[in-house]
Amino acid sequence: MQYENYIKDFPARCSTLLDKFEDQARLLELDVTFLFSIASVGLTIPIERLKKPYINEKEPDKNSTPHPANDRDNYPNARDAMQNLRHKNFKRSELWDTTMQPWYYGRLSSTLGPPDAWPELSELSKTSEVHSETTDCILNHIRNSLAHGNIYTSGNPIKKIIFLSELSTEKGKFNFLVIPLLGFSKFLRNWFAFINKLDISQSPVQGVIYDDGQRDMRIDLSHHGKAQ
């Protein structure tokens, strides 16, 4: 079955997989792998298609090439809703709730050795809890970590997921984000719930996207007056 779009339809299918198979993956002791797999596409694809190109968190990248699908213009209501979400304090956004347990964010002094040997992670405290960070900061961090393979785990069985994101201003230096396993699962569900509410009203030219990447273009005549 073809995708109507990759902003809402594609993540909805990822959400269905999460709902139907997470328990089975947990029984097979593959739940962390399963969550990474779902997040790598279900989180990053809508982000990439709707985001405004940035060099860093504050500086727009004027030389960046827009996504070829041009979804920021095709789905302006979804674009604006995503932009509003990214500007919010993460813990006051739709992606957070109190059942997700503490998340921790900060700067690593070194990545030598296993994660349990990193001083900042062995001494997690309330002062390093996610508090004032924006949703933009958190989403960018997770996206960058997944895209560059900077993912780690802690515990046996695994209890925490560790995401690292390299600082754009200091090569070889990283910020960390530590998320309890169950908290990350809940976060993904909150993410998909947010995506499911997006208004994906299109611009006048619409298209159906097939698995082979071809687009069947058609005109929405409601934007152009009576058909001739």
From TrEMBL:
What's this protein's name? pEK499-p136 HEPN domain-containing protein
Q: Where is this region: Disordered?
A: 56-77
Compositional bias segments (type: Basic and acidic residues): 56-74
Q: What organism is listed for this UniProt entry?
A: Trichlorobacter ammonificans
